[in-house]
Amino acid sequence: MKVLIVLHHRFDLWNAPAWFAERLRKEFPRIEVVHLSNYDGVEEQIGDAEICVAWSLRPQQFSQAKKLRWIHSPAAAVHQLMFPDLVNSDVVITNAREVHGPVVAEHVIALIFALAKKIPQAVRLQQRRVWGQQQIWEGPPRPREVSGATLGLIGFGSIGREVARRAVALGIRVIVLREHPEHGGAGVAAVLGPGQLDELLSQADYVVLAAPVTPQTRGLITAARLAKMKQDSYLINVGRGPLVDEAALVSALKENRIAGAALDVFSEEPLPAESPLWDLENLLITPHTAGLTEKLWGRHYALFSENLRRYLGHEPLLGLVDKQRGY
Q1: What is the DSSP letter of 12?
Q2: What is the pTM of this model?
Q3: Which residues are catalytic?
Q4: Which residues, in sequence order, are CB contacts of 205 under 8 Å at separation 6+?
Q5: pLDDT band at residue 139, thresholds of 50, 70 and 90?
Q6: Which residues does residue 235 pair with via DSSP β-bridges, in sequence order?
């Protein structure tokens, strides 16, 4: 049996460290583990691989993978794997949503506090050596408490559940929109279905996007949807950039039709220097850092090695992706 690890990214943390493959070889000595740090040689190696750890595969690479039975993505998002030949095959896909959920949820809470307490404005004033107490108070909107606020959470997967748990603990009222509202949501005030998005937007002080990219969610937040939000509300996106019409968001922020936004993900990454998003004072940008932690690859290893044991024992895998739904 062969495991092929092929992960290459411009950002160092997204690349599997050398010890990952070495530890697998020690723990599973009967398995051949091949670790490629770039895409050179993928075509030669994938033909006899039964398991592949990768962000994505091209359709032509997949067509060469005659023995492939399982793909594991270290990401939460798997839309880049959802091409017809793979979706309609018997190859299973798992992802690392449970690895990223708690870390990204902490980032969401940090963004809520930053927006509520006007931390970005304080930083800008500090850089100018301005004692900006009056300016920060005058707003609008003014600094506020998060306890008693309403959070509208779009998506209730591994990230959404962790955000809700932390928000409820802070006294925030959480309303959730999910594909199957009949599944409920522990501890939240209300669970809405996809047809009730406008209702959520009109109630929320903070709208948090934590949904996967699917045909139904791509371009979910349009100009019309932004118009449903309260003027003193904030939009936070830690899902994926394509969930938001960025041009419409720029217009809404420039015209102060919502109080502000915080984005960790973008339609194009890295965000181009010429993007108008950079110039908006009521936008907080974090450069896709919500999931960063020094514990990342230790957690990845724990998940993948457990799943490898389950695979060898013909047991159900953790983090299984529903290919028809795309997540």
Answers
A1: G
A2: 0.95
A3: 240, 269, 288
A4: 149, 150, 151, 230, 232, 233, 234
A5: confident
A6: 207, 261
